[in-house]
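User: Sequence in, structure out. Go.
Assistant: Echoing your sequence, followed by the C-alpha cells.
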Amino acid sequence: MKIAAAQINPTIGDFAGNIDKVLQYVGRAKEMEAHLVVFPEMCLTGYPPRDLLERSYFIDANLDALNGLAPKVKDIGVIVGFVDRNPTAEGKPLYNAAALLEGGDISYVAYKSLLPTYDVFDEDRYFEPAAGTAPVKFGDMKIALTICEDLWTDEICGPRKLYHRDPLADVAKKKIGMILNLSASPWWIGKEKLRIELAKHKALEHQLPVLMVNQVGGNDELVFDGSSVCVNEKGEIIAQAKSFEEDLMMVDLQYGAGDLRGADGGDPDMVYRALVLGTRDYVLKCGFKKVVIGLSGGIDSAVVASVATQALGPENVLGVIMPTEFSSHGSVHDSEALGRSLGLQIQNLSIQGLFKAYLGEFERLFPGKPRDVTEENIQARIRGNILMAVSNKLGHLVLSTGNKSELSTGYTTLYGDLCGGLAVLSDVPKTMVYRIAREVINRDREVIPQAILTKPPSAELRLDQKDSDTLPDYEMLDPILKAYVEDRRSPEDIIAGGADAEIVKRVLWLVETAEYKRRQMPIGLKVTTKAFGVGRRFPIARKI
C-alpha cells in the first residue's frame, strides 16, 4: 500500500481555504499513485480553534466542509481531522474526530481518546473522549487510527503516567497492520526528536509500522513544525518529511521505503526557522502585510529584523532608529549598517526633543525629585508610542524585540519596549539570541555587523548603562532561568546544582515580581518547553 502524508498549514476558521488545500494535496497524491492520503488532526478547522468551538456556526461550517469534501474524493482514500458533535445528552458536546473518505462518502469516523490539559492544551474543556477503540479497514488492511495524544502514553513522554488507559494498546490487540496518527503537535526545542523516539517505541512495542502526520505552520503563539515521520516495525525510519514547510511524504509499505527529506539542524537553526515561520504566519493570517521594528543597535532588534526579513521580504520591513543623548554613535551607525545589509527601509528619528519636553514637565510635576528610572523608562515609552503611531498610520504590525531573559526578570518597560503586536523573541533566552546571530544569520556572510555582536548589551537609557549593572551575566542568568521557569526546579535544587545562592535568590525574586508585566506583553512565539503565555498560569496578586 502506498500512503501519502500531507502535512499542510491550515488557517483556523478558513474552511474554504483549508478544503482547497486538502483537495490540492489529494490531487498530488493521486498523481503519485497513492492509495491513501492522510492529513493532520483537525485540519478542516485548523488547530487550536479554542473557544471558537463554543460557537455552533463554527461547528456547522466544519461539518459542512467535511460533507462537501466527501463527494469530491474518489479513486483514493482520504483521512482528515475535523470536529464532530456528541449526539448524546451527557458529556462534553464535541469530539475531536477523524474521518475516512472513500468513493465519495464518509465511510468511517474515529474519535480521540486522550485529551491533554497540560501546558498549552485544554482539550477537555471542549471534547468528550472516545467511548472505545476499533480499527478502521482500508483495502485489505486493518489500521489503528489514532489522534495525536492517543500515542503519547509511553514512558519517554514524562516521569508520570497521565492516563489510566492506553487506547493504542486496546486496538492493537485486534490484528491490525499499521498505526496511523493524525497530529497537531506544537514544536519546542527537541520536540521533533521526541516524536521520532515515540514512534520508534510504539513500533517496537506493537511490532507494527507507525506513520505520524503532523500539522505545519504558526497559529498565534504556537509553531507547528510538521516533521512527519514513518518508522517500520523494527523502529527504523523509512520516511521523513521536511521541517517547518508544507510537504507531501510518500511511503510504500510493501517495500518499506519512502521519502526521506528531514534535515538535521542544530538548536539555533531550528529555533530560527520556527521564528521565521511563526512570524510569517502570524503577520499574514492576521491580515497584515508589513511590519515595523525599533532598531536600537543591539543584538535583539538585529535578530528580529533578520527574522522579519526572512519571513516577509525586506520590502515589507521598516526599521525605525530613535536615538537620544544616551544613544551611542555606534548604535545608530550599526543600525544603519544592519538596514543596508538586510535591504530594509530605515527611518532615523531623534526623540531627544520629545524627551526634553517630558523632562521639563517632570520638573514641574516632581519638584526636587532626582532623576531615576522614571526618566529612563520614558525614553522607551516615547519609542513605543512612535512605533504604534507608525502602525496606526501605515498599517504595519509592530514587532517587539524583548528576549526571554529580559522578560523573565522584568528588565523591560511597560508601554515602552513591551508594546507591539508580536513578541518574536519572548521565548528565546539571550544566550540563544547570540547563537542564532552567530551560527545561523551570520553563517555565510556578515549580515549582522560584528560590532553588534561584540558590544556589551545595554538599554542605553542612561550614560554608560550596561545590562550587567542590573542583571547577572547572561551565561550565568540563563541556566538559572531555565532551571526555574522551564524545568520547574526549586531554589534549593538550583543552588545545590552549583549556582550562587545570593544570585539565585535575587533572580527568582525578579521573576516572581515581574508577573504583572508579562501578563501585559504581546503574544509571543513558543520555542521552549515552557513559554510565558497560555501554558503558564500564575496569579499576580499573591504573597511572594
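User: And one key feature?
Assistant: The CA atoms of residues 323 and 350 lie 5 Å apart.
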